[in-house]
Predict the 3D structure of the following.
Amino acid sequence: MDKIAGFVTRRPTIIIAIVALTNLAALLSFFRFSLDTEFLNFFDADNTEVAAYHQLNVEYSTGEAVTVLVESDASLLERDNLLAVFDFQSQSSRIPDVQQVQGYIPAQMLSGSLLLPVDAEFIQSNAEALGRFIDERYFLTDQFLSPDRKSAVVVVGLEVGADSGPVVDSLRHAIDDFPGLRLSIAGNPVIKDTIVGYLANILFILLPFAIGLILLVFYFILRHKRLTPLAMLPAAFGALWTFGTIFYSGHELSLVTVISPIFIIVMGSAYGLHYVSHFQENLAKSGNSMEATRLTLKMVGLPIILATLTTMAGFASLIWSEAIPMRQMGIFVTLGIGYAGLLAIFFLPALISHLKISAVHPPDESRRLGQMINQASTHRVPIILGCVAVIIASAVFIPKLEVVSDQLMFFKESSEIRQASARIETTFGSAQPLIGRMVSSDGSAALFNPVEAARLLAVERQLEAQPGIKSVISVFDLAVGFNRMTTGIAGYPQNPAVVQAFIGQLGEDGMKAWANQNGFRLLVRPVGLETNEIKNIKTWTAGEPAVQVLTGMPMLFDEFNRIVVNSQISSLGLALALVFVMLVISLRSLKAALVGMLPIVLTIGVVLTFLVVSGFNLNILTANLSAIVIGVGVDYSIHLISGIYYFRRAGLTENQAVASAISSVSRPVLANAFGLSLGLSVLFFSPLLIHIQAAAVMWVAMVFSSIAALLVIPQFYRGNKIGKASTVPAAGR
């Protein structure tokens, strides 16, 4: 480390200039800034479930759909409400990229043998007759209008591949034009559009507040106006460089990667804080910035390098995940941690060594804190009992951990989109339906074969009887309704002429959405669909030859559950293995590596137990926290173990070395843990529930891992547990 110290003190201008130019380049990358909230982009392109979903949408020329919930205190069949809903449907149909708009108001009304076109003028003059027709005869009434006639849905279908954002924005503006009705929108396009605004707020509002809170805690610990912001620079610049890497590589920020800079600041600021706090101590002793730089790098240089590498290894384990956002986070956060570590070793010492920093002793509270932690660490029995309690609790609760990937669960229960979706699902079924393909040996001719049509309708009713399914609709159901409307006869039309009239009523584009040479499209509306019910439906489908394909967002959520679980298990195991191997190589001691891993393992158990006890679930974000836990735990363990080795080589006894290391390390360790936990508390103000969950989990992880490292590790270093000072590994050289 003497060579690095010599380089950074002799060539500070070069280092600072390189960093400044890199910062400028990273800032310019924000011209490429964009957000990606498409759930389907969470999957690899060759995923079979996603491929089936895309295939069906292309095959039947059906794009995404926005479901508009219409509510009124009066009947929606009254004249004013009919006019308002018709006007809304008309406005919606004129929005660019809208393919069709469907609701409970028919395009034509059957009167005797005549089909009368329905428009605003017709409604004004014939509202009562139209209301009776919808209430008693229209074959689509039950699909769009509630039994009490006070709520309805209007389904706005988009063109295949259309950009849903402008459509959702236009619908939001249109809703404001109808104050007499309560209009709410739901569906996957609305989820994506809502998340975009939320993520922008998190990035540009909550992130700066988080940094401000962290700085306040750091100042409370350091009590130095100039050193406090300097401690944050490696992490801040590392996060900025990560943004540059993301944007210049052509990627967008997703629901997960948008908070990557927060994680980089969480990890990276530890390096700057450790350096600055020890520099403050050495400057007070030597009174010379150059000498303080040399002493500080000698003491914490290699621990920072080792902590950087092991933290990178923890995040790098996510690179092999099946989930693309987790994979991207693994890549970008790994790079960001590397940037922060590099800046803490080269840029921060170069900058501080040539600044006029006043020599201020650390506050007395720091010494008292170290003494208190050291005293607590001597109570071996309570600490051991605490570890045993964690192990028992983990064994009991972790098997109960559930996985949830439904995007609606990302939102708070009080959010408008979640409440609207719940009201729609209760009455009409989910706004995110399943879609499928039903096949017949007769091909499209099955429409004209009443026997075959009845068989296929029976298959639909079997599917409809499965738990979690509210309704199943196909072109055959529409034909049944048309037959009842036109002839008054229940059941499938026996007369081919009625079927032909029905096809003519649908029109060419309407038929394309329901039938083609490959089969007949199914629209399945679930309600409260759970993972076990999806499994049963898949089993039923596999045993029913008539239903060839059944997919949709609920199925994709379930598929993502599987990916999250597999990724969690594989990444956690790989991260632990990588970190352990690196600790063995760096510390040159199997026992020391095992000791360093113990706080990490305990913290993982505590975090997963907390998820169950708190009622949280494993999702795309909380699944990533295991890698963060490993990175946090490794940092704290490395700094404490390295400090013990440093003081033992200085000639102190084992107990003295432990006490001195705790006194030196506890301040930056606890400042980092509590400071960054407080900084992450801004996520409690996020409109997304998963970010609130992440903040709560990080509080538990940061606080427990720091205390566990400071209390558990000393148990193995007092007395002759690790060996004599003469045989101490060379981690702190």
In short: The first helix runs from residue 2 to 10. The two ends are 8 Å apart (CA to CA). Residues 220 and 671 are 9 Å apart (CA to CA). The longest strand covers residues 151-158.
